[in-house]
Design goal:
Largest sheet of chain A: 7 strands, mixed
Oligomer: heterodimer
Largest sheet of chain B: 6 strands, mixed
Radius of gyration of chain B: 14 Å
Structural class of chain A: mainly beta
Largest interface: A-B, 29 and 25 residues
Number of strands of chain B: 12
Distance between the termini of chain B: 41 Å
Number of helices of chain B: 0
Structural class of chain B: mainly beta
Helix content of chain A: under 10%
Number of strands of chain A: 11
Strand content of chain A: over 45%
Order of helices and strands of chain A: EEEEEEEEEEE
Order of helices and strands of chain B: EEEEEEEEEEEE
Distance between the termini of chain A: 33 Å
Helix content of chain B: under 10%
Strand content of chain B: over 45%
Shape of chain A: globular
Radius of gyration of chain A: 13 Å
Chain lengths: 112, 115
């Protein structure tokens, strides 16, 4: 398995609170991604990073921010959680463009 | 922009039946194509890939051929097992916001194999 660790694996939080999800890799891959998975939508890209401090928005970035201060860590922050952000979040990494990505185990987030 | 369309599920088959899951794509340039599998409660695992036209990816009895003329990458397996029950995702490498490297996924097809 690719060395990707997501934390926490499960979280329940209240509406309006900030939440940070962490993705840690040991593969030294350049690219890191955050996706969310929802029934009927498949996987949708939230944000991605193509290097330290280099990030950009994906398809569903509203309400989310990211940071990457080190190659190995990519943080996803929900500034003020809403019920529509209840989802399963996956981190993925890839060594370059046009290549496969490797996924973490996911974080199940419930906003109540 | 790039996109992927795969057949709606769920698909229910008997053990040893033949499997086809259709996937078509829209893309500019020359993307790579992938099939991922997700077992319950787990992350996505790469099943197979193809990086150029006419390439055939294969793994664990699954196959898919990159058909540029029909913009398709259909997943096939000659004889499915109960252990193949999972959700299957077709994906292509794409561009978003002018940068490279992210994958664009279909919505997934759930496969259930009955003994």
């Amino acid at each position: 398995d690719a060395g990707i660790t997501q934390s926490p694996r499960h979280k329940v939080t209240e509406t309006g609170t900030p939440v940070t999800l962490r993705c840690h890799q040991t593969e030294n891959h350049r690219y890191m991604y955050w996706y969310r998975q929802d029934p009927g939508h498949g996987l949708r890209l939230i944000h991605y990073s193509y290097g330290v401090k280099d990030t950009d928005k994906g398809e569903v970035s509203d309400g989310y921010s990211v940071s990457r201060s080190k190659t190995e860590d990519f943080l996803l922050t929900l500034e003020s959680a809403t019920s529509s952000q209840t989802s399963v979040y996956f981190c993925a990494i890839s060594p370059g463009s046009n290549t496969e990505a490797f996924f973490g185990q996911g974080t199940r987030l419930t906003v109540v | 922009g790039n996109s992927v369309t795969q057949m709606e599920g769920p698909v229910t088959l008997s053990e040893e039946a033949f499997l086809t899951i259709n996937c078509t794509y829209t893309a500019t340039g020359y993307p790579s194509l992938f099939w991922y599998v997700q077992y319950p409660g787990e992350g996505l695992q790469l099943l197979l890939k193809a990086t150029k036209a006419d390439d055939k990816g294969s793994n664990k009895g699954f196959e898919a051929t990159y058909r540029k003329e029909t913009t398709s990458f259909h997943l096939e397996k000659g004889s499915v097992q109960v252990s193949d029950s999972a959700v299957y995702f077709c994906a292509l490498s794409g561009r978003y916001g002018g940068s490279q490297g992210n994958l664009i996924f279909g919505k997934g097809t759930k496969l259930s194999v009955k003994p």
